[in-house]
Design brief:
Layout: H1 13-21, H2 24-34, H3 40-47, H4 51-63, E1 67-71, E2 79-83, H5 85-88, H6 91-104, E3 129-130, E4 136-137, H7 147-150
């Protein structure tokens, strides 16, 4: 398998993020971590992923501060993988992917899992992006300001 090009020096935050969590297994590991899975065996059983690939992905997520090792909550000699603050900050990313999938990857009426408010049991409202002043924005209402556009021009 060819090694992927690294984007760790890219000016684009999306490219840098993809380097850390952009492969399918890492995203599914994160999904499972948000669902409460913590042990290697739980991830392996739920994902059906080869142990060597799972171990590599978990090491990568730990190395980037998304997950951390913690002593087993039951006091056993095992350790668990828990989301860090940095990892929990990915909640909106996973919700966005989930909601996009609900909208575009299922036929009308086709059953699928649903994210609900733990307190009220109601489905979570769709994510929205808002301007600084509170206006709702869509893709045509925002532009990326490139680093090259932010640099002051040299005086002549």
């Amino acid at each position: 398998m060819a090694k992927r090009a690294s984007h760790d020096k890219a000016e684009c935050p999306v490219a840098r993020t993809v380097d850390i969590i952009g492969d399918e297994w890492s995203l599914l590991i994160l999904r499972d971590a948000f669902d409460g899975l913590r042990r290697f065996g739980e991830f392996q059983k739920n994902l059906g992923l080869a142990k060597n690939i799972l171990a590599t992905r978990l090491r990568h997520l730990v190395a980037h501060g998304i997950l951390e090792h913690a002593p087993a909550s039951d006091g056993s000699a095992f350790h668990e993988y828990v989301l860090t603050d940095k990892g929990r900050d990915l909640f909106h990313v996973l919700v966005g992917l989930r909601q996009w999938g609900e909208h575009h990857c299922f036929q009308p009426g086709e059953p699928h899992s649903v994210l609900v408010d733990a307190q009220k049991g109601q489905p979570v409202r769709p994510l929205e992006v808002h301007a600084h002043d509170g206006r709702r924005l869509d893709a045509t209402d925002a532009v990326v300001k490139k680093v090259s556009e932010q640099k002051p021009r040299a005086k002549r």
